[in-house]
Amino acid sequence: MEAPRFQHLLARIGVLRHPCDLDLLLFFHRHPQSLLTTERLAAYVGYDLNQIARSLDRLTDAGLLKCSQNPTRDARMYVLLTPGTAWLVSLIDIASTPDGRRRLLDAMKEEASEPETSSDHSRPSNALTRRRRRTINSRR
Amino acid sequence: MAEQDLVRTGVPGLDGILNGGIPRGNVIVVEGPAGSGKTTLGLEFVYRGAREFNEPGVIVLFEVSPSKIVRDAGRFGWDLLELERQGKVKIIFTTRSVLQQELQQSDSLLLAEAARIGARRMFIDSLPPLRIDGPTGEDGNGAAAREMFHTLVQGLHRENLTALLAVELPGLERARHASPPIEEFVADTIIVVRIVEAQRAATRSIEIVKSRGHDFQMGNHSFRIVDGRGLEVYKRVQAPRGWSREMAAAYDPTTRVPTGVPGLDDLVNGGYFLGSTTLVVGVSGVGKSVMALQFIAEGARRSERSLIMSLDETPAQITRNAGTIGIDLEKEIARDVVSVQYDAPQEIEIDRHFAQIEHIVEEFQPKRVVIDSLSTYGSALGSSRRLFRDFFHALVVLMKEHQVAAVYNHENPEILGMSSMAGEYGMSSLVDNILLLNWVELSDEFRLALTVAKMRANPTRRMTSECEVVNGLGMRILPRQVPPAALPFSAYYSLVSRSPERHTMRPAVHE
């Protein structure tokens, strides 16, 4: 798929602004109903807790994700609300290859407008994500 | 007494060894090494519950992602996503610690999700084994680990869920453990699945070690994981099959089944009894299969259903062989009067094989059955003579239950004479009739001899008769005084003992 088509797809989805958004969405596609602590979720997708919280809020606000709200509990139930939609299937299809995933991230970078993408809080927490950032930078 | 509320697994064959199912609310632990089939069993338990028994279920996963589980279930034709859409199945990904916390909460999110779909079943995949002497016991004696598992079980009991927990076990035999896993004390039902290696092959076995509140069939049964179907469990061949079969150990003492071999009926008083077991013994190439084909053809001629079960030759070969003696087997197969079944003897799984024969006999309802040959079963089962005898005994009882006249071919390795009738397998006592087919070397030719060595509940002359196999016609028993060009068998003694000698009192001497 050509870059404009990636951007078109992302534009249709609208909500994905940060690599963590995409990674969380992919995670919830593979695990449509998850009962997890935020810490465990952060470990699974490889971002820091602050970024996880922001991305979760974004997905929830966009109506893509529902999560239980109970401050007394460590774990929350996350339910993906559009597990079978066509755009998500397209997205998963693209992201299922390393190249497709990288190009999606590139397209997101180009579309990115939020300041958080360059803040320290947004830095992915593991080596894999640092590599991903290097890849994105090298393509600029 | 009120009928017990048993949860049927729906897994073909498994409810049979569970004597109907598992008492509702039992916590079931399925133990086994990696790749032994725990997850498939658990998925099938939930899938069939939702699909066939209207019992929704929850699948709780810790390591494998739900998308992979959905994909793997699809391989068996189980559409878990569709069942999710219908609100009959829920797949939840979580961690072990969260699950434990959840089951201790009265307002558990997990149990609330289960309640939302009215779940009656749960599958948890998977837990590590908790050992009394293992590191999980904070106080060194495993009390903490036991308490943890007990808490889990109590949470499941509170919701009256029938839960199946997969527990990972190392590949070693369960009996070799330094200590039994804690879950074995706390769980209500324990099922062990294993991969059994034998002669470079691997088979799967399943054992119900314990199940509170009901009776079940003990011992190691076999199972397979079949693409497009799922698990198929085969009761071990030695296991009792129920009252009707045990009571069937007698043949019909009145109805005879003609053999189809000209002249043979005269030697066996008109034929074999219905429900009787006949062993035809002889060296390879002596005519056992020819006799068997004539037995089947005679049944077809009378429109009696007949079954050939062969380990030696494929249906195409058997049909071709039949054609050489004037029997059109294809026509009879097309008429649904004859069924020819073949199973490869390599790596035969005897429980599965017996279950297949059992199924065919129950469905096809044959009056005549030929098993060709017992000696191939003997070699396929290797050194386990006991297993062979158990299998043969199970076959004999099955045929008697269904009032089948069964003929078993058995290859005796001795080319001339016989020092034993059934070799080393010790099955003579299980059979009603024994026919010996034997080469006799007279002058420069082998001549074919048939001796009726045993006919239970029948008078028999135990006479050795000459017979021949004629191209295009098959086998026939020769009259005692022919052929005229040679001396008849009656002119000799010790025909079956490798050293036939002529009577000194023969008429020619007196002349």
Structural class of chain A: mainly alpha
CATH architecture of the largest domain in chain B: 3-Layer(aba) Sandwich
Which value, in Å, is the CA radius of gyration of chain B?
Answer: 30 Å
Supply Rg of chain A. Answer: 14 Å
The backbone outline of chain A, from C-alpha atoms, is globular
Biggest sheet features of chain A: 3 strands, antiparallel
CATH class of the largest domain in chain B: Alpha Beta
CATH topology of the largest domain in chain B: Rossmann fold
Give descriptors for this structure.
heterodimer, A: 140 residues, mainly alpha, Arc Repressor Mutant, subunit A, 3 strands, 57% helix, disordered C terminus, B: 511 residues, alpha/beta, Rossmann fold, 9-stranded mixed β-sheet, 27% strand, elongated
Describe this structure in words.
The complex is a heterodimer of chains A (140) and B (511). With 140 residues, chain A is mainly alpha-helical. Chain A has seven helices and three strands. In chain A, strands 1-3-2 form a three-stranded antiparallel beta sheet. In chain A, helix 1 packs across helix 6 and helix 2 crosses helix 4 (49-61). Chain A starts with a helix and ends with a helix. Chain B is of the alpha/beta class and 511 residues long. Chain B has two domains: 6-236, P-loop containing nucleotide triphosphate hydrolases (Rossmann fold); 244-486, Rossmann fold, CATH 3.40.50. In chain B, the strands form five sheets. Chain B has a nine-stranded mixed beta sheet with strand order 5-4-6-7-3-8-9-10-11, sandwiched between helices. Chain B has a nine-stranded mixed beta sheet with strand order 16-15-17-18-14-19-20-21-22, sandwiched between helices. In chain B, strand 10 (220-226) and strand 11 form a beta hairpin. At the A-B interface, strand 1 and strand 3 of A face helix 3, strand 5, helix 5 and helix 6 of B.
